Amino acid sequence: MVQVNGGTVALGGQQIDRSIAPRAARRRRSVMPGFGLTFGFSLFYLCLIVLIPLSAVFVKTAGMGLDRFFDVAFSERVVASYRLSFGAAFVAAGVNAIFGLLIAWVLVRYDFPGKRVVSAMVDLPFALPTAVAGIALTALYADTGWVGQYIEPLGVKVAYTPLGVVVALIFIGLPFVVRSVEPVLDDLGADVEEAAAALGASRLKTFRRVILPAIAPALLTGFALAFARGIGEYGSVIFIAGNMPFQSEIAPLMIVTQLEQYDYQGATAIAAVMLIASFLLLLLINLIQIWSRRRMEG
Amino acid sequence: MGITLSGISKKFDAFTALGNIDLEVRPGEFLALLGPSGSGKTTLLRIIAGLEFADSGTVAFDGQDVSHLPVADRQVGFVFQQYALFKHMTVADNVAFGLNVKKRRDRPSRQEIQARVAELLDLVQLGALGGRYPAQLSGGQRQRVALARALAVGPRILLLDEPFGALDAKVRKDLRRWLRELHDRMGLTSIFVTHDQEEALELADRVVVMDHGRIEQIAEPHDVYAQPASAFVYDFVGESNRLPVTIAGGAVRFGDRELQVGSDGLADGPATLFFRPHEAVIVPDGPALPAIVSLARPKHGVTRIEAQVDGLPHPLEIDVAGANPPKVGDSIAVAPTRSRLFPHPMAD
């Protein structure tokens, strides 16, 4: 029995002054060595991969002067593309939050034949080259496609409209929500739901008061990831969007357009605006998350 | 409130969890369901609660058939093994949950709920901790929150699944006594599931010993220990030694050695002889079991001896009183003073 009280170490009731206690008492030792080395490398690596390219965006932008910056980054056409990119990403992430939760629920709570196949299907949008997904979706929803030929007469036009952008982003963002929520839902355990039922709560009240608050932080994480991915998505959207100015042009396309005109500064200006906007949105979501998590862990 | 179970059976795929269980729980009784894991005790408790439904048979509360009522309508308090507290709610909100989810016309006013929660938290001695979150509490405190939450809706029956399983020994002992007092004071009918025989014998009015989905014995704690109904009960409740013996013409033999024990009126054939460690003496010689002492250590004021007997896979355990117990390596002869015979030799 070893107890460390204040400055003394008690071994089996005998008091040993710290000055003659083993060195271990003086120098804090960790069972996991190499913190300095691994942390240093992590920091270096993050700088190299993330921070330097991102700061290059701002450095490049800074060279163009404020007037031109506003001309390029806030021209009417570009602002319309921001609206579409952020709006569509938000709607798609919202749709994914709802249906991703449902899928996660089914995967966690029930056992059924082919569960592994369903689970693998969830990851497909991760694995598929985005351009392939985009072409496939366009083919499906075009006015002659499998789906398009039936919904177009109903007045629902998906391909080459903002709705098409949302559809592509839903496809791309689904795994983020499912994979974020799954472990938390699993951890929540059936007994908590049973406890709510035993206390007289209906299914709806159990979901609203017990399950939803418990998984809210994870759901928000999934939403944030899907949203962030949606804002920057290019490959899968570009085919189905149709790219009509002021209507179905996404912000990443505007960047590419600038690049095609060899206007690198213009491209980085739009990129900088998107970067700041995404950063602020993610910061907001993180703050909400910290707040809700603190309530749970005290 | 009395509970009557008749002909309860439950299967999970091919596994028979419960086979035709009949049980009568008296009003105000504190009943223990005791058995090893897989004996069906938790399944039985969940069927009484309405968290699980039997394939056949009925559950009746005070003569009223509740077999098809879901848990929410049975007015039972259920305390889960891992407590199942709502982590995102304060202790007070946890306790108030059952009242807060009532339909508006049945729901007490906010003041009434607050008063009820305060009263319950006092009852479980957590009066000052209503504002904390479950993560900030110790295991014993969480357990009591779970109890207060279950009691808040005014249940007629309290069901507890391994209520002390996750607690350390000291806390467990205190909580046990406290729970017993609470049960007596509130006039509930309580059933708890445990695999700990000591807990069952100390706490319960009656003990139901279960194995393989069947009830082996229903009796008061003393009788479960002193008059076990089957070899399983003898072996599961309390410490025991067992010897494979044969009965021939009223004589009980271990190998070629005749033992001085009654044949309990069993027919000739193979049987198993059971005796407790304190129900044997060391004799100088005579009709006894020759053994060699392999271990001797103090235990509860006596000396516990383990002694190897030729032809037995396990050593015998015997408690010896007195100042001069045998030492390791000594040759001794062991004679049971009180024993029980059961006809079917138990598989090891």
TrEMBL record, chain A:
Its main location: membrane. The keyword Transmembrane applies. It is a multi-pass membrane protein. One of its GO terms (molecular function) is ABC-type sulfate transporter activity. Pfam families: BPD_transp_1. InterPro entries: CysT_permease (IPR011865), MetI-like (IPR000515), MetI-like_sf (IPR035906), Sulph_transpt2 (IPR005667). One of its GO terms (cellular component) is plasma membrane. Residues 82-285 form the ABC transmembrane type-1 domain. It comes from the Bacteria. It is found in: Cell membrane. SUPFAM superfamilies: MetI-like. Keywords: Membrane, Sulfate transport, Transmembrane, Transmembrane helix, Transport. The chain crosses the membrane at residues 35-59, 84-108, 120-142, 154-178, 210-228, 267-288. NCBIfam families: 3a0106s02, permease_CysT. The complex is composed of two ATP-binding proteins (CysA), two transmembrane proteins (CysT and CysW) and a solute-binding protein (CysP). Belongs to the binding-protein-dependent transport system permease family. CysTW subfamily. Part of the ABC transporter complex CysAWTP (TC 3.A.1.6.1) involved in sulfate/thiosulfate import. Probably responsible for the translocation of the substrate across the membrane. This is Sulfate transport system permease protein CysT. It comes from Sphingomonas oleivorans. The lineage of its organism: Bacteria, Pseudomonadati, Pseudomonadota, Alphaproteobacteria, Sphingomonadales.
TrEMBL record, chain B:
It comes from the Bacteria. It holds the Pfam family ABC_tran. This is Sulfate ABC transporter ATP-binding protein. Residues 3-237 form the ABC transporter domain. Keywords: ATP-binding, Nucleotide-binding, Sulfate transport, Translocase, Transport. SMART domains: AAA. One of its GO terms (cellular component) is ATP-binding cassette (ABC) transporter complex.
